[in-house]
Specification:
homodimer, elongated, Chorismate Mutase Domain, subunit A, mainly alpha
Chain lengths: 98, 98
């Protein structure tokens, strides 16, 4: 196969790279915020996870996804993926010496 | 436990909700772009995945994550998570009647 990708593919990949840079920066900001939540919860001896809050987040994200023409099932998988990481951070904070 | 979360937690959660709305919209745009890539690859009979491109994406995202103070290991997990979905879409496109 030709090693040089077609121009149209290069252009699409440049857009994907721009979107990915934005996603990484937003994720960095999200984890900075959830670290603050984690510290607050640890200070107040609140449990790391909150099923009621998570149910609200899920319903909202599914709606936003639908409006943006993103598969709501994927939005759900995405939220679970992020929350698993966040809850792990919170548990580490709650367990650690602070 | 008191059902009303502390004001500081509410404020942090509002920021998280704003970030999540932005993430969902960016993800929607990313999948719109990768759908175009998928159609182009299917038209040109290119394979759905491209390990060389993925290695470049990974190295770049790890660098961006480091600069943004996001765990590069998490950025790597995130990219794998997204790519698994994209490659599944591409395989569906390549296999389907178009």
């Amino acid at each position: 196969m030709d090693a040089t990708p077609p121009a149209e593919l290069v252009e699409l990949r440049n857009s994907i790279d721009n979107i990915d840079a934005a996603l990484v920066h937003l994720l960095a900001e999200r984890f900075k915020t959830t670290q603050k939540v984690g510290r607050l919860k640890a200070d107040l001896a609140m449990p790391p996870s909150d099923p009621q809050r998570e149910a609200l987040q899920l319903a909202r994200l599914r709606e936003l996804a639908q409006a943006a023409d993103l598969d709501p099932g994927f939005a759900e998988k995405f939220l679970s993926f992020i929350l698993a990481e966040v809850i792990q951070h919170h548990e580490e904070l709650a367990a650690g010496d602070r």
